[in-house]
Amino acid sequence: MTSLMPAPHLQPIARLFTGPRPFAGNRLAYPMETHQQTLRQAIHCQGVGLHSGKNVHLTIKPAPVGSGIRFIRTDLGGQSVAAHIEKVVDTTLATTLGEGACTVSTTEHVLAALRGCGIDNADIELDGPEVPIMDGSAAPFCALIRETGSRRQNEPRIALRITKPIHYNEGEKRLTILPFAGFAVFEEIIFDDDIIQRQRCSTVLRGDDFLIDIAPARTFGRAEDVEFLWARGLALGGSLDNVVTIHWDRKSVLNEGGLRFDNEFVRHKVLDLIGDLSLLGFPLLGRIRAFKVGHSQHLGLMKKIAASPDSWELVHLLPGGFLRRAATQAM
Ligand SMILES: [Zn+2]
Q1: Catalytic position from the list 9, 295, 298, 316
Q2: What separation in Å is there between the alpha carbon of 275 and the centre of ligand 1?
Q3: Class assignment of domain 8-325?
Q4: From the CA of 4, how far away is ligand 1's center (Å)?
Q5: What is the pLDDT of residues 298-307, one digit of tens each?
Q6: Is residue 163 within 8 Å of 111, Cβ to Cβ?
Q7: How far does the chain reach from its first CA to its final CA, in angstroms?
Q8: What is the phi/psi pair of residue 277, to 5°?
Q9: What is the 253 CA–ligand 1 centroid distance (Å)?
Q10: How far apart are CA 248 and CA 193, in angstroms?
Q11: Does residue 295 have an active-site annotation?
């Protein structure tokens, strides 16, 4: 007898969020690029680092298949550090990667842009210790990537597919990743600032959804915290041009144009999460529930994933949205 259930890829995404059981079939819920991608040409930008305040030139270059994302410090004779969880050296306020003397901080926004635009392989060259903050979001990087375009490479893409739930808790801060034949995030934050209070965001990394819904959301902070940060040599490059700054009354923002979204704060948290999770080195197939988390908990979840090889598998993305277990299962 023929099943009356619609094919998984035709089920509305909302159903996949709220259904009685997480969907974990052998076919993607929506189309994804089957091959690895890099940039068509190099792209350039410059700007200040949020915390260092230093002006930095940044160039993102195409890279060969299987090379992943690398940061290269041209001011340190070309020393490099891979965008990989094993290279995380600090998660205070931002995610810093390091390999010997080569450190690169505030990596999460450019990494989110690359993941959101489907770029698997790229070399990110910079002449300073911190990625430029630009306007505080991932949108400027996405615009440059979109302008030059992506190039399909001659090697199938491998994704890390969650097969059993993985939980990471730190007190009330909670992260869970569940099986899902795509990539989805549901995030919730609670702040006592009147302008934030309780915000929620759910998104699926599908088509242009990341570019429209997540990439433009800017980083944020409180005006009352700025002096505290400055005294500690942090946020030296922070200004109303690159940080959504909450008024001392905590009811409004100081930025002239106001907010880009009513829930811009939680959308930016999703942006950070997507950037940090790219440090797994593979696109993720799973759906995440996140409550009151930040960079440190993102790293905690990734370490838990790395330590739970019986709860995920590496799969090839095949034409038609089919998935096939990859020969290698090493991260
Ligand atoms: Zn951020």
Answers
A1: 295
A2: 9
A3: alpha beta
A4: 44
A5: 999 999 999 9
A6: no
A7: 41
A8: -65, -20
A9: 17
A10: 10
A11: yes
The Cα–Cα gap between 233 and 54 comes to 12
Ligand 1 centroid to Cα of residue 56, in Å, is 18
Q: How far, in Å, CA of 66 to CA of 80, rounded?
A: 16
Question: 3-class DSSP state for residue 69?
Answer: strand
**Nearest alpha carbon to residue 131 among 72, 82, 77:** 72
Measured CA to CA in angstroms, residue 53 lies from 93, 111, 134, 136, 239 at distances of: 15, 20, 12, 13, 10
For residue 108, give the nearest of 264, 225, 222, 270 by alpha carbon. Answer: 270
Contact between residue 38 and residue 63 where contact means Cβ atoms under 8 Å apart: yes
Q: Give the residue from 328, 330, 270, 331 showing the smallest Cα distance to 302.
A: 331
- Model confidence over 58-100: pLDDT tens digits? 999 999 999 999 999 999 999 999 999 999 999 998 999 999 9
Percent residues over pLDDT 90 in the chain: 80
Q: Domain locations in the chain?
A: 8-325
Q: What beta strand segments (E) does 34-149 contain?
A: 35-39, 43-48, 55-62, 69-73, 79-82, 88-90, 96-99, 102-104, 122-126
Amino acid at 89: V
Cα of 48 from ligand 1 centre, angstroms: 15
- Listed residue (227, 212, 63) closest to 138, CA to CA: 212
The reported pLDDT for the residue numbered 62 is: 98
Query: Residue 258 and residue 248: Cα distance in Å, rounded?
Result: 15
Residue of 311, 69, 288, 31 lying closest to 329 (CA atoms): 311
- pLDDT tens per residue across span 96-118: 999 999 999 999 999 999 999 99
Whole-number Å distance, alpha carbon 220 to ligand 1 midpoint, is: 8
**Angle ∠(291,294,296) on CA atoms, nearest 5:** 120
Burial readout 187-216 (b: 16 or more C-beta within 10 A, e: otherwise): bbbebeeebbeebebbbbbbeeebbebbbb
